[in-house]
TrEMBL record:
Residues 2-46 form the Ionotropic glutamate receptor L-glutamate and glycine-binding domain. The keyword Glycoprotein applies. InterPro entries: Glu/Gly-bd. It is a multi-pass membrane protein. This is Ionotropic glutamate receptor L-glutamate and glycine-binding domain-containing protein. It comes from Dreissena polymorpha.
Amino acid sequence: MDLTEKVMTEMNRFEYYIKEVEDRQYGSYIPQNNSWNGMVGELLTKVGFRLDVIFLTHLCLAS
């Protein structure tokens, strides 16, 4: 938490929020459906998608 606050303060360009994942798990691999739960699963599905959208938006605006 302290490192996050320090980076955000020094860069002063990012907005962030902290939220608890719905299933309250750190993240375990589920081989039956080839997925992850917890924080790892949320990062792979939700945050990964957001980063792709941000990257594509940046590319479109740059061209």
